[in-house]
Amino acid sequence: MAELEVEIVAADHFVWSGAAKMVKARTSDGEIGILPGHSPLLAIMAEGELAIQPVSGDRISVAVDGGFFSVDNNRVVIVADNAQLGEAATAGIR
Amino acid sequence: MGAQIRVYRQKISSTTSMRKIFKAMELIATSRIGKARARVAASLPYANAITRAVSAVATQSEIDHPLTTEPEQIRRAAVLVITSDRGLAGSYSASVLKQAEGLTELLHAEGKEVKAYLIGRKAQAYFDFRSRPYARVWTGGTDAPEFETAQEVGTALLEDFATSFEEGGVDEIHVVYTRFKSMVTQEPLVIRLLPLEVVEQEAGSESELLPLYEFEPETEQVLDALLPRYIESRIFAAMLQAAASELAARQRAMKSAGDNATDLIKKYTRLRNTARQAEITQELSEIVAGADALAS
Questions:
Q1: B-chain residues near A33 (CB < 8 A)
Q2: Given Cys at both, which of A40, A55, B79, B99 links B188, Cβ 3.0 to 4.6 Å?
C-alpha cells in the first residue's frame, strides 16, 4: 500500500517529516482523514489537534493554532502557524 | 619632552582598549551570523509551501480578491523601512535609508502620498531628526527578529490597506530591506508587497504542473486565510534577511575598525620611540657638553 509523505512546517522552523499511513486534521468545517491516494486538496485548518499515524511507531499528535495543509500525489504539506509536537512524537522523527 | 611621550602612551593605551572592543564585537557578530543564516534557511520550507499554495489558488480560480486587484488609482503608498536598532555596522542603515529616500522621491513624483512604517531605532532616529511623520515604528530585536513582530507588522499594514484612502488607508505597500547575498555583499532592495502580482507560470514540464486542488471550505475563504499569511511570511523573510545583513555589515565594519586601530597603535608606538630616543640623545649631548665645559 502506498504511503503518505508528510511534512509539517511552522513559520520559523521545521517541525516533523516522515512517512505515514494516515493523517487526521481539523478543518474549519470539521474533521478530515487523509489516506494514501487522496485527491489533491487545499484546506484551512482550525485550531486543534492533528493526528498522524506513521508507518512505524506510535501515533503522533500535534497541537496547531491554525494554518492550512495541501495534499497532492500522496504528499501532505502541513503549514501551521504554531505547531507543538505532543507526547511520543520523537519516535517518528527521522 | 617627557610630556610628549606621555601623550603618545595615553593614545596607545586608549586605542588598544578600543581595539579590544572592536575585536569582541567582530567575534560576536561572526558567531551570530551563522545563527541568523540558519534562521533564514529554517523559514524557507514555510515560505515555499505558502508560495506554492498561493500560486495554486491563484492560477486555478478567477480571483477577484481585494489583496490582488490593482486599485484604479493609487493615491497613497505605504513604505516599510527595515533598518537596525544599533549602529556600528558601517553604512548598513544609511544605505537602506538612502534607498527608501529614493523610493519616496519616486512615489512623490508619481503624485502619491507616502506613509512610512519603520522597523529599527536607526530609522526612527533618522525620521525624528528631520521631524518627518511616520505611521508606526517597531524597535527592539532587529538582529534576531521574532515571527510575532512580523505578524504585528503584517496585521498593521493589512489593516491600513483595507482602509479607504479617505480614512487614511493606503493603496499599495512597498518594503525596503537589505538582501543578504553573501558574507561580503548585501544589497538594499525595494519590493512591492501589495497588491500582489500573481505571476502566471508558463506550463512547463508535466511534473511542474500544479494539480487541480479541491478547496475547503471555499476558494474565497482559502484565499482569505492564505494571503495574510503569505504577506506575514514575506515580511518575516525580509526581516530575517535584514538581520543577517546587519550582522555581516557589523562584522565587516568592526574588522576594518580593528585593523585601523592596529595601524594607529603601530604609528603611535613608532612616534613614541622616536620621542624617547630624541630625549635620550638630548640628555647625552647635555652631559657630554657639561663634562667638556668642566674639563676645559
A1: none
A2: B99
Residue A54 sits in a domain whose CATH number is 2.60.15.10
Whether residue B178 is contained in a domain is answered as yes
Chain B hits for A27, Cβ within 8 Å: 216-217
Domain count, chain B: 1
Inter-chain touch A41–B217, beta carbons under 8 Å:
no
pLDDT digits (tens), chain B, 296 positions:
578 899 999 999 999 999 999 999 999 999 999 999 999 988 888 888 888 888 777 777 666 677 777 777 888 999 999 999 988 888 999 999 999 999 999 999 998 999 999 999 999 999 999 999 999 999 988 888 988 899 899 999 989 888 888 888 888 899 999 999 988 889 999 998 888 765 554 444 444 566 778 887 787 788 888 888 888 889 999 999 999 999 999 999 999 999 999 999 999 999 999 999 999 999 999 999 999 999 87
As for how many domains chain A has, the answer is 1
Helix intervals (H) in chain B: 2-60, 92-109, 121-129, 147-162, 219-295
Residues of chain B positioned with their CB less than 8 A from the CB of A28: 216-217, 221
Q: Residue B294 and residue A38: Cα distance in Å, rounded?
A: 114
> The domain containing residue B167 runs over which residues?
64-198+211-250
Beta partners for residue B77, in sequence order: B114, B172
Residue B273 lies in a domain: no
B64, three cell numbers: 477577484
Q: Enter the ipTM.
A: 0.77
Residue B133 sits in a domain of what CATH number? 3.40.1380.10
CA distance B172 to chain A (A): 25
Instruction: Establish if B278 belongs to a structural domain.
Output: no
| Minimum Cα–Cα distance from B145: chain A residue | A12
In a domain, B258, yes or no: no
- Cα–Cα distance for residue pair B274/B195, rounded to 1 Å: 68
What values do phi and psi take at A10, rounded to 5?
-105, 175
d(CA B98, CA B228): 29
**pTM assigned to the model:** 0.84
